[in-house]
């Protein structure tokens, strides 16, 4: 499901930046080689706050619901032209109470499996760069503006800005997001690195938890 994959991408990429901001920390992992020690309650609250922030970018009128039209407009802003019946199908898969809208609880249910990731949704099984990837490839191409097989800092910024995230206009924030995924150090993200990010899932959103008590 392309919507779910894109949302996982946003949570992963924005997670470390927003995490540092909300806890008043220097950007991780830049401030040290050791992740900050935080309590589990703070991390759980952070994840909820992060999901709420992403939800608000789709909820254009801030009424607490994402309508079909709002979803269609958000997808169009990042270059995905979805037919009305496709948008309706996306909403229907998330809409648990059948009211034709997506509320925050239904939105958060997309990420209830915080131990794995979107692997089942996007069928991420191996490291074969030649694997077309279906919806995963489509999600990658949302960020790969010029379709050269690489996501640059500038391309990432354009997508985030088009969705209303202020981080999109902040060069250092975008560089930090790229660094979290960039394994070969070229300052860009290829499809192989993108697939690994999706396999890591929510484990990559926040630093490793400390087992110590408050």
Describe the model.
The structure is a single chain. The C terminus is likely disordered. The chain has 10 helices and 4 strands; from the N terminus they run ααβααβαααβααβα. The strands form 2 sheets. A two-stranded antiparallel ribbon has the order 1-2. A two-stranded antiparallel sheet has the order 3-4. With 214 residues, it is mainly alpha-helical. The protein has a single domain, classed as EF-hand (Recoverin, domain 1). Helix 1 packs across helix 2, helix 1 crosses helix 7 and helix 1 crosses helix 9.
Summary tags:
Recoverin, domain 1, 214 residues, 4% strand, 10 helices, 51% helix, disordered C terminus, two-stranded antiparallel ribbon, mainly alpha, two-stranded antiparallel sheet, single chain
Relevant CATH superfamily: EF-hand
Tell me about the largest β-sheet. 2 strands, antiparallel
* DSSP summary, beta strand count: 4
Rounded to the nearest angstrom, the radius of gyration is 17 Å
**Averaged pLDDT, please?**
75
CATH class call: Mainly Alpha
Question: Based on CA inertia axes, which overall geometry fits?
Answer: globular
């Amino acid at each position: 499901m392309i919507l779910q994959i894109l949302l996982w991408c946003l949570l992963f990429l924005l997670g470390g930046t927003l995490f540092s901001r909300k806890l008043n920390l220097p950007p991780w992992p830049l401030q040290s080689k050791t992740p900050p020690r935080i309590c589990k309650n703070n991390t759980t609250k952070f994840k909820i706050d992060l999901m709420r922030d992403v939800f608000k970018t789709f909820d254009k009128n801030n009424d607490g619901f994402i309508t079909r039209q709002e979803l269609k407009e958000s997808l169009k802003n990042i270059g995905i032209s979805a037919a009305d019946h496709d948008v309706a199908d996306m909403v229907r898969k998330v809409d648990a109470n059948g009211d034709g809208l997506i509320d925050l609880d239904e939105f958060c249910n997309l990420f209830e499996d915080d131990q794995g990731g979107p692997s089942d949704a996007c069928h991420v099984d191996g490291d074969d760069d030649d694997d077309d990837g279906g919806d995963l490839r489509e999600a990658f191409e949302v960020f790969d503006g010029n379709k050269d097989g690489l996501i640059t800092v500038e391309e990432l910024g354009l997508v985030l800005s088009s969705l209303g995230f202020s981080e999109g206009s902040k060069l250092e924030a975008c560089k930090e997001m790229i660094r979290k995924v960039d394994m070969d150090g070229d300052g860009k993200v290829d499809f192989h690195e993108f697939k690994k990010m999706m396999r890591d899932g929510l484990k990559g959103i926040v630093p490793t938890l400390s087992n110590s008590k408050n």
